[in-house]
Write a structure and sequence with these properties.
This protein has 238 residues and is α/β, with parallel strands linked by helices. The protein has a single domain, classed as Rossmann fold. It has six helices and eight strands. An eight-stranded mixed β-sheet has the order 1-2-4-3-5-6-7-8, with helices on both faces. α4 links the parallel β5 and β6. The longest helix has 18 residues. It is globular, with a radius of gyration of 16 Å. The two termini are 24 Å apart.
Length: 238
């Protein structure tokens, strides 16, 4: 497997992503953006990128904060993500820059690119879809579903799956319901999956290390959601 840092730019800012693919595989292949949580590009999404590469995808763990920055505390990470969520055009520009970088790679079939994300990364992936980017699909794992710029009717080109937990204090039922209504108005092809008894950050084995109430790893939900994503990829990349 080939892994390396991959720098790209937007305006005056340099972003440092992490690119993984099976160099023994010939020809181009579907590409998958992997978007990090509020803490920045760290081991969790890099590990997911390597898992995808081992399955034959070209995976690009992106950098949404610039210069590969990682938050030194939960408060700092939340401050960075709040600023981006408040400036939706800037957030969309950053995720689109990563999308275009991956699509242009020689190893990637630029017509078959998807985006997945965790927590803030799920939010970012959904904003990519809302923007009308030509992604085949988007999967949000415990990502926030609110936006200041709802999807316009007919604008969403990507198929969407949002996976969340019923006991996630950051994504209450009212937010899930509002997202469903938004997707209906936008005439989007979207699915919402809710796991009962599951909290936020259920895919990250180290979720509890940050001592933030409401964050908890759930092995069953993690494994089920990964299998759901792979079945989705079989559909959208066929």
């Amino acid at each position: 497997m080939k892994t390396d840092n991959l720098d790209y730019r937007l305006g005056e800012t340099t972003f440092r992503g992490y690119f993984a693919y099976d160099e023994a595989k010939s020809g181009n292949r579907p590409g998958v953006l992997v978007v990090h949580e509020a803490w920045g590009l760290a081991d969790h999404v890099k590990e997911r990128a390597r898992k995808l590469a081992a399955l034959g995808f070209a995976a690009f763990a992106v950098d949404m904060f610039g210069d590969g920055r990682q938050a030194q505390s939960s408060e700092e990470g939340m401050q960075w993500t709040r600023a981006l969520r408040a400036d939706v055009p800037a957030l969309r520009a950053r995720i689109r820059a990563a999308f275009d970088t991956l699509s242009a790679r020689a190893e990637v079939d630029g017509a078959r690119v998807a985006s997945i994300g965790y927590c803030f990364g799920g939010t970012s992936s959904l904003e990519l879809a809302r923007s009308g980017a030509p992604a085949r699909g988007v999967v949000s794992f415990h990502g926030g579903l609110q936006t200041q710029i709802p999807a316009e009717p007919g604008a969403v080109r990507a198929k969407i799956i949002s996976i969340t937990g019923s006991d996630d204090p950051f994504i209450p039922t009212a937010q899930v319901d509002a997202f469903v209504e938004e997707m209906k108005r936008a005439e989007a092809d979207a699915q919402v999956i809710v796991y009962t008894g599951v909290k936020h950050s259920f895919t990250n084995p180290h979720a509890g290390d940050r001592k933030v109430p409401g964050l908890e790893y759930n092995r069953v939900a993690d494994e089920r959601s990964w299998k759901t994503m792979l079945a989705f990829f079989d559909e959208i990349f066929a």
